[in-house]
Input
Amino acid sequence: MSSSVIMQEFITKYMLCSGVAENLILVINCENLSVFNAPYKMMRVILSSMQSLYKAKARAIYMLNSPSTFSVLFNVMKKFLDEVVTKKVEINSSNIS
Output
């Protein structure tokens, strides 16, 4: 089981109020990342687990300070992801520090 799934299960079990509709917002700071040193495997695991297990819980996924090439790569990945998930992902390439 991946660490992102374990984290989501922990949050669901111990941090959310029972019977209340709650949404998660995932913020990823991509500062100092480039196309060559980005943790693609981790990002793929997070996106796929959000898509398959927590689609209804995810309100938004923000990728801040990302290289402009991330937008291009995400546009390619969109073809393989669920449209509900891709609408929740926002990539910001400008420096927000």
